[in-house]
Design a protein that fits this description.
Layout: H1 10-17, H2 23-35, H3 37-47, H4 50-61, H5 65-68, H6 75-97, E1 108-110, E2 113-115, E3 120-122, E4 125-127
Antiparallel strand pairs: 1-2, 3-4
Length: about 130
């Protein structure tokens, strides 16, 4: 039986994970990882144990993965509550910011501009 030798060494993978490779070494390793299952698996197990990869796969494949969080806890439902609170706060902010509009289909006015909808909101403001 012929043993497969690998140009990658554990020290090279460790240096890669610590971001200690120069650009050409990193590029060479990245290219090699696209073709070498052995080295790719070595890199994956160096980053996280197999049980962590399995947990991640099952969380990403589950129907409720988006709302339950990767760790499988109930933190996802807290985010839904926070999003609802943020939407309420954004609505209250908009109500204070906008002047009334003559058009009942519009949310309000900012100066001469009619505001038809809120496209998004976040920590830096509201997009109309």
């Amino acid at each position: 039986m012929v043993m497969k030798t690998s140009p990658c060494t554990s020290s090279l993978v460790s240096c890669f994970l610590r971001d200690e490779l120069d650009g050409s070494q990193q590029h060479m390793l990245e290219e090699h990882l696209t073709d070498c299952d052995y080295c790719r698996e070595h890199l994956e197990t160096s980053v996280a144990g197999m049980n962590q990869w399995e947990e991640l796969r099952s969380a990403l494949n589950s129907d409720d993965g988006a709302s339950s969080g990767v760790a499988g806890d109930s933190a996802g439902s807290d985010h839904l509550t926070e999003d609802a609170d943020a939407s309420k706060d954004a609505g209250e902010f908009c109500a204070r910011l906008l002047s009334p509009s003559d058009d009942p289909q519009m949310l309000g006015r900012i100066g001469p501009y009619e505001i038809s909808e809120v496209i998004g909101h976040g920590g830096m403001g509201v997009v109309f």
